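FAQ: What does the model actually see?

It sees only this:
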Amino acid sequence: NSMKGNTQANTQAEVRRFRQLEVGEYVANSSDTADATEAGRIFLEAYFDLTSKLETAQTAEEIEQLAARALAISSDPTVRIYSARHKFNLGRLIESQQMVEDVLEAESGRLPPTTRFIADTMYLSDFQSPNGNVSGSSHSSAITNFIESSREFQTVLKAHPEGLAFASDMYRSVWTSLGDGGREQLLKSLF
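And it is asked to produce this:
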């Protein structure tokens, strides 16, 4: 049992290191003002602390306030996607979905690979029908977009294998949300 605890702690530490790389990439590449970038950095670090289940993490409500402050002055898509993710985690599905759709529509070409992967994962696993058996072009294009962003994200994982546990959770989320038809379509797209 202690071995399982050590493995889980090591996995959480790897995910945390990977998320810190993402914060660094955001700070280095944000086109926001210095104040907006700082507000975004503070929000992202607090959000990742919460999702990494650190004992020192702020509450979800405090992080929502940080997100609101960052969103008020930031136009960076990374801040907007993780704010949407936080809203989703708080049960605010409609607001979260609208934010993700807005970013994907306006910014998909300028999203960093990890942020695009998160956005496409959310769109496919969180905003499609509960049974995942949606037919039509929206679901089909969501799968296609997920495959494309997965391929881009693979370059990040090759450089930073500590992100594999994070990626595994994301892929598991998508697989679980898809019904048989969606899983078949996903597998056909991969092979």
